[in-house]
Write a structure and sequence with these properties.
Length: 284
Amino acid sequence: MKRKVITIDDEKCNGCSLCIPNCPEGAIRIIDGKARLVGDYLCDGLGACLGHCPEGAITIEEREAEPYDERKVMANVLKQGMNVVKAHLEHLEAHGENDKLAEAVAFLVEKGLKNPLEKNKAATKVHSDLNMGCPGAAARSFAADESVTGGDKGKRPSRLTHWPVQLNLMSPTSPHFRGKDVLLAADCVAYALGNFHEEYLKGKALAIACPKLDDGQEEYVEKIKALVEDSGISSLTVMIMEVPCCRGLLGLVEEALAGVARKIPVKLVVVGVGGDVLREETVP
């Protein structure tokens, strides 16, 4: 995918290392006497290091790069102590990177650590809005047991691979979406369709939403864009009920896809209120 990351001019860099303490993400290291970007996935492209290079060797460019990984960044930042964690969170907040901030806070919650920005109103709002203050809403991935199959009787295995699944709560840049086939389903679909897990969810990352009742649907459009552009998902299957209001979910997807350059296969599945699949079609 194309995104903004730093680039370092070897000829200009004198290895002074002044950029290192100003990159809490751990994306820059001194190797063989020169500053090096050690991983695209560690660079957020926001340029905290730019003003600290006396030689002007660091600039930002837009190019093909690995997706930024907030969880790997937080693992690096945490090793440097909570003051550095706070600086990193303030950095994300100052640049309006609310999804990354929420993912970073979720990482702290998983580790049993406090959010050092709790007293900061803007950060608290993000924390509250995304419900990341609740451990039950913290992002996590787990492997579905693909070896287990369900018969006509007995326990049927879940094909869910991550949490949370509600589009309003999730971060589209979470690792469990990267390069995956994604299923975006209206809330009611899984209740109506008896074979939802085995036939449609298996092998896919899930997001659910209600186009009639959910607030913040402009944000949904941006999250779907981020799934395509930032997380590089492979395909998108949209499952909706036959009722007219449910088609709004497809409308959000169409609006999002119209705003991105990257093209992916999109499939629509319409489910009847009686639990039957009425039609499946490719979305142009």
